[in-house]
Amino acid sequence: MELQTLYRMKSKFVAREVGNEMILVPLSGNVAQMNELFTLNETARFIWENATETNTIRDIENLMTEQFDIDPVTAKKDIEQFMSKLESTFHS
């Protein structure tokens, strides 16, 4: 999945901050699918918040290596796993 696809998918979720965590709830039509909640860890939240219309995967990789002091390979893997998990919500 491309990052632009993730950006477009954001409209299929409701994101809410609960305490100091971010929760994503997928939408089907106008109905929340409460059985498919996602609680985002710090890394996933960072990816979600930085998935914008103009950012690329490489941009987020670079931001993650600065923010979390990790290498680019780990950053890319984290991004791909997060996007894959969200995408599977709509293809299962």
For the termini, the CA-CA separation is 16 Å
Helix content: 40-55%
Helix-strand category: alpha+beta
Using the coordinates shown, work out and report the CATH topology: Outer Surface Protein A, domain 3
The stretches of 5 or more residues where confidence is low (pLDDT under 50) are none
Q: What would you note in describing this structure?
A:
There is one protein chain. The chain is α+β, with helices and mostly antiparallel strands and 92 residues long. It has one domain (3-89): Outer Surface Protein A, domain 3 (Alpha-Beta Complex), CATH 3.90.930. Helix content is 50%, strand content 21%. The protein is built from four helices and four strands. Strands 1, 2, 3 and 4 form a four-stranded antiparallel beta sheet that branches. The longest helix has 18 residues, at 72-89.
